[in-house]
Structure formats: C-alpha cells, structure tokens
C-alpha cells in the first residue's frame, strides 16, 4: 500500500481508521457490524511525533517485496 498513498493517508488512517473505508472492506472482513473499521484508533497511545514517524516508515516500505517464511 505504501506506493499507493501519500504519508498523510497513513497518518490519518492511524488516528482515524474510519476516515477512508475501502469499498471492499465488508467483504474482506475489515468492518464491524455497525460499518465502522475494526482497527482501533491510536489517539490515546501515540504522540503526534510517533504517528508521523510511523506514517513515514510505512511510506518507506514501497517497492519492497513481501517475504514469507
């Protein structure tokens, strides 16, 4: 996903998982019964700096292949 979205998308998704919902999220099992994301928000856990760092890290992963063991 890193190559598909800017860093701001990841930051917003971490802080507000319901900001953008994938149209196929229900079929993929990503939504609760009420239509909201199953992902918790991290507002009470992460600082703004930590969110920025995490979003930057996720963005840096673009172009890397997923390796399974």
Chain-wise SSE layout:
Blueprint (H helix, E strand, L loop, with lengths): L6 H9 L9 H4 L19 H13 L9
Task: Characterise the protein shown here.
It is built from 3 helices and no strands. It is mainly alpha-helical and 69 residues long. The longest helix is centred in the C-terminal third of the chain and has 13 residues, at 48-60. The radius of gyration is 13 Å and the shape is flat.
Features:
69 residues; flat; mainly alpha
Q: How would you briefly describe this protein structure?
A:
The chain is mostly helical and 69 residues long.
Discrete helix count: 3
Summing up helix and strand content along with how strands pair, one would put the structural category as mainly alpha
Low-confidence stretches: none
Cα-atom radius of gyration: 13 Å
Largest sheet: none
